[in-house]
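Is this the right way to post structure tokens for a design question? Let me know if I should format differently. Anyway, here goes:
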């Protein structure tokens, strides 16, 4: 266990914002976390982070930042059809996907190259190319601020689009320590996403490695590498609008992309709305809307959190002015 004072968070947020935490605590096991919580008494405010790939710091954090280094993939049970595994919250998400692909476990491949860690994946319900992590999660192991363990079954996690019970304000004192996944050992692919289909046709065989390679290629073509250009992936959630409003819009913009959400609602890509407002590639000081994917805001170098927030507010206002649709950040602003 390491407890550090006045600690720089620069390496702990993919936006590359240089802020400090009064106290930073990293632990390797549940027992270390529980010892810390019971003996040291966590003072408010506190914030548990993963890899910081969905976070935007706007100022120094005057409190304790916690980070899990519980790592590794443990097999709980397997037969010839399925495998159940338990994965440490501090494991890099993409290392886990790579492990699944090598071992021939199906389900996580569409989520290749999503930044962040396994613990945060279960909080945020990460998703891409027709798959959400909730489809693979069996249960989530936690420790609360009083050092008490509890396992939440998938249904108790109240999963929705980029949402779970763990995002509720009253659940901020519940820390994910491990996530249990159930994966198939028989081929079952989700290839309904257009771009994947088109790219896969260039490859002779359909297997896990090929799908992972294709997803990585598609993501790398659109999404900036945070090591080169600070960013937190999609900055906004895609808005869900009532069908009536969607039909009006579609008459006006017949080329508008959309995804059906049940019978009454339709999801519209925020990236498309932002691009229509002319923001693609536009800079606002040291913050900019990414040139290849308008849903991504980037730090051009040395930007402070409030500059990115100012850009985000300007983008959201112009989307509202033009389309009367409100878009909300997916990124957690601290
Ligand atoms: N589009 C534009 N202009 C843009 C960006 C997108 O017109 O600048 C259009 C695209 O042409 C396409 C549609 O919008 O028709 C959707 O674009 P894309 O496939 O890039 O996906 P997205 O809806 O922008 C979501 C997730 C991504 C995930 C992709 C692929 C959210 C908030 N984002 O983005 O997740 O990788 O789908 O499934 O749901 C993330 O959450 O950080 C993330 C990267």
């Amino acid at each position: 266990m390491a407890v550090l004072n006045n600690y720089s968070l620069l390496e702990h947020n993919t936006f590359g914002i240089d802020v400090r935490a009064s106290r930073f605590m990293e632990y390797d096991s549940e027992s270390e976390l529980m010892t810390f919580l019971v003996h040291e008494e966590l003072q408010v405010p506190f914030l548990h982070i993963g890899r910081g790939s969905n976070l935007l710091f706007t100022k120094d954090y005057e409190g304790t930042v916690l980070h899990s280094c519980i790592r590794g993939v443990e097999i709980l049970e397997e037969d010839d059809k399925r495998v159940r595994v338990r994965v440490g919250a501090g494991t890099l998400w993409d290392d886990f996907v790579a492990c699944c692909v090598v071992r021939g476990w199906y389900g996580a491949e569409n989520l290749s190259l999503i930044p962040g860690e396994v613990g945060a994946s279960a909080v945020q319900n990460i998703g891409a190319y027709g798959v959400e992590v909730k489809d693979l999660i069996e249960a989530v192991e936690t420790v609360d601020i009083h050092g008490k363990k509890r396992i939440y079954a998938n249904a108790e996690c109240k999963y929705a689009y980029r949402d779970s019970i763990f995002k509720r304000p009253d659940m901020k004192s519940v820390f994910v320590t491990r996530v249990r996944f159930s994966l198939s050992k028989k081929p079952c692919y989700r290839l309904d996403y257009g771009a994947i289909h088109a790219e896969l046709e260039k490859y002779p065989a359909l297997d896990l490695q090929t799908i992972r390679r294709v997803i990585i290629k598609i993501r790398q073509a659109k999404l900036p590498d945070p090591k080169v250009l600070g960013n937190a992936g999609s900055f906004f959630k895609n808005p869900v609008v009532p069908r009536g409003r969607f039909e009006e819009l579609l008459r006006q913009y017949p080329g508008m992309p959309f995804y059906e959400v049940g019978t009454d609602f339709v999801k519209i890509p925020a990236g498309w709305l932002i691009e229509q407002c002319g923001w693609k590639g536009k800079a606002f000081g040291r913050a900019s809307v990414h040139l290849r994917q308008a849903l991504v805001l980037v730090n051009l170098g040395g930007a402070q959190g409030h500059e990115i927030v100012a850009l985000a507010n300007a983008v959201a206002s112009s989307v509202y002015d033009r389309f009367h649709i409100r878009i909300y950040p997916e990124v957690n602003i601290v």
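Format looks fine. Someone answered above. Worth noting: Residues 128-129, 222, 233-234, 237-238, 257, 269, 271-272, 275, 280, 293-295, 330 surround EPU (CB under 6 Å). Residues 97 and 134 are 15 Å apart (CA to CA).
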